[in-house]
Amino acid sequence: MCGAPPLEAVLPSLIEFLNGTVFVAHNASFDFRFLNHDLERLGYPVLPGPPVCTARLARRVLAEDVPNVQLGTVAQFLRSAVSPTHRALPDAEACAEVLHGLLDLGGRLGIETLGDLHGAVRARGHPHAAKIRLTDHLPHAPGVYVFRRPGGEAGPGEVLYVGKSKDIRTRVRAYFHGDDRRKIHNLLAEAGAVEAHPCNTDLEALVLEARLIHRHAPRYNRRGKGWRRGVYLKLDLEEAWPRLKVVRRAKGRGSYLGPFASSRRARLVKEGLEDVFAIRRCTTAMGRTTRFEPCALADLGRCAAPCDGRIDLERYEGLVRSLQHALSSPGGLLAALEARMERLASQERFEEAAEVRDRVDALVTALDRARNERWLIGAGRLEVAIDSHRVRFSSGALVRRGDEPGYSLPVPLDAADEVRAALAGLRAPDVRVVAAERAPAEPVDAGSSLARLRARLDAARR
């Protein structure tokens, strides 16, 4: 404009004026990009984003009430005292009044904070936006939230999804702010209620989430449903000549590892143990006096071959006891497998070395988890402090109502996810044990070997 001061003259005062404010404009990205371009060109720091666009906000709030979201149309609909005239000051004043009017209307969509406002501006218009009223009662607190289908006289509706957040209200409202994933669209289409389960700590929320997912098996939760595929590795002591088995249930006399998330992981551990201990592998039922032709493994020295009498019952029982001891004190076992892996690699038998590495990885994971589960469940009544809050466990089960019976070893399949969530939460640096029925302790033996092998395997994966 003729007679207007140059940009270089007005930018310093504009920067001072904008300091600490939120940039608002109609079609804001246009003005925001131009202004930041000139600021950068002249050596000034650019304005932090994101800007608030009243055009986008109007599209979110007034989608069905106005034919378009031009500034004049929206200002007229909101009965602004100032009409835009394509001049700087009147347009700025009209934009300010439009913003105030949109914020008043935005309360019905849950837009109450600057974070809500930015979320609404980013939204593309959600077909289920009106359902945000379901979140009106949710607290700004950490915990677990549950989406349900509409209930009826029979009680609450089916649980559709369980999640956790450090701020339940903000997290749930985010689903309505333009998340265009098909899964979210379908979830919101079915939802008729959202309930909150506030928790004082992230540890409680983590465990409660796992518990509710297991209890309700929500259709929209991916994880938490695989526990039915879990298996155990059992050293079956009920057989005359004990052997290792992959089993679906932990029942009968024996030593157990697991549960494993898949049969493949259990078989890897089984093969790793059989690499070191020449325990029989055949599935043929054997009594104490059963005899038959041995397999090739016997001639290779990889099976003690009780089938043809090469080993008597007393020595075989000693072999079984050695295997049981290795499961509880695995230092020698891990050293033997690591040495075998290194020997194969040095001989450039890399495929075989990789097989042994996978077995070691599965075994280290299983042993480490078993040690952790043993100290948590073995502690009985356990109380930990996180800041000023106390969290209680009863034999590995989070105490919420006070009647939780706790778990036994091996961990039941249906409790595996909850116990693992508890162990993950208890590893946080701010967790302190303040009381325990029995002092929680992890065996010292092989602890350093497990940690070293775990670090080595993790580094190899990276």
Structure description:
- The relative contact order is 0.07.
- Strands 11-10-9-12 form a four-stranded antiparallel β-sheet. A three-stranded antiparallel β-sheet has the order 4-3-5.
- With 462 residues, the protein is of the alpha+beta class.
- The protein is built from 16 helices and twelve strands.
- Counted by DSSP, the helix tally is 16
- Uncertain segments are none
Largest sheet entry: 4 strands, antiparallel
Provide the spatial order of strands within the biggest beta sheet: 11-10-9-12
Tag the structure with descriptive keywords:
single chain, 462 residues, alpha+beta, four-stranded antiparallel β-sheet, three-stranded antiparallel β-sheet, 16 helices, 13% strand
Please sum up the structure shown.
By secondary structure, this protein is of the alpha+beta class.
Describe the secondary structure blueprint for this structure.
Elements: H1 7-18, E1 24-25, H2 28-41, E2 52-53, H3 54-61, H4 71-77, H5 88-106, H6 114-122, E3 143-148, E4 159-165, H7 168-174, H8 182-190, E5 193-198, H9 202-216, E6 231-236, E7 244-247, E8 254-260, H10 263-276, H11 296-299, H12 313-328, H13 331-346, H14 350-378, E9 381-386, E10 389-394, E11 397-398, H15 416-426, E12 431-436, H16 447-461
Parallel strand pairs: 1-2
Antiparallel strand pairs: 3-4, 3-5, 6-7, 6-8, 9-10, 9-12, 10-11
